[in-house]
């Protein structure tokens, strides 16, 4: 249950605009990898599909491109 609680907190932070871009990508990578993103409201699926289409995250939730150089 701990990870689901973390995801819920991350979703609330995302909706409040409190996440950095790398945190958004990581959140969506987890959501895509778990399949959960496709069960949430449509906005989440559209963001996930955009990240996939842009080659940032793949269909299994792997981050393919870093948006902010280390």
Folded structure, characterized:
This protein has helices spanning 2-15, 21-34, 42-53. It has 70 residues and is an all-alpha fold. The protein has one domain (2-53). The longest helix is centred in the first third of the chain and has 14 residues, at 2-15. The termini are far apart. The relative contact order is 0.15.
Quick overview of this protein structure:
57% of the residues lie in helices and 0% in strands. It contains 3 helices and no strands. Helix 2 (21-34) packs across helix 3 (42-53).
Keywords:
70 residues, single chain, mainly alpha, 57% helix
How much helix is in the residues? 55-70%
Strand content: under 5%
Parts with pLDDT < 50 across at least 5 consecutive residues: none
Count of DSSP H/I helices = 3
Quaternary arrangement of the chains shown? single chain
How are the elements arranged and paired?
Elements: H1 2-15, H2 21-34, H3 42-53
